[in-house]
Amino acid sequence: LLRTQVEPGRVLSVSNLNVSEVSPAFGSRLQYSREGNTVVITLQDLQEKDSDNYICAEQVMNSSLLSATGTMVLVKGVDQACEKMSWGFYALLLVVALLFCALVCCALCRVDVKKYFQKKKPNVVYEDMSYNSRRSTLVRS
């Protein structure tokens, strides 16, 4: 694996005998695995200085390097202002939620909540219409 543009040089070299040589710039940030003729290379914790054009090349005995077009890797830094803004947004959202809860609690304390959940007694008027009760109200001459 070679870098070709910004900092030209060898990143990883693997021989047929599985002897590897990793550039000190990548150290423990580079891992590779090999299965037959296929090599899988993983670069971790990329930094802005790792931005470059990377190519895989194969060296054949008694010939020059054979290479294909590479892969351009562009690493952008994390914008710290966005991270701070998102924490501020979450803090503001939390404060608004707490204020809303406090408002609801105050409103419930002022209102007699039990009154709304009690079973209402029906408004019934009972009138005795039996003969005995009517007899006392009859007009006698």
From TrEMBL:
The keyword Membrane applies. GO terms for biological process: adaptive immune response. InterPro entries: CD7, Ig-like_dom_sf, Ig-like_fold. GO terms for molecular function: signaling receptor activity. Keywords: Membrane, Transmembrane, Transmembrane helix. Signal peptide: none annotated. GO terms for cellular component: membrane. The chain crosses the membrane at residues 87-111. The keyword Membrane applies. This is CD7 protein. The lineage of its organism: Eukaryota, Metazoa, Chordata, Craniata, Vertebrata. The gene is Cd7.
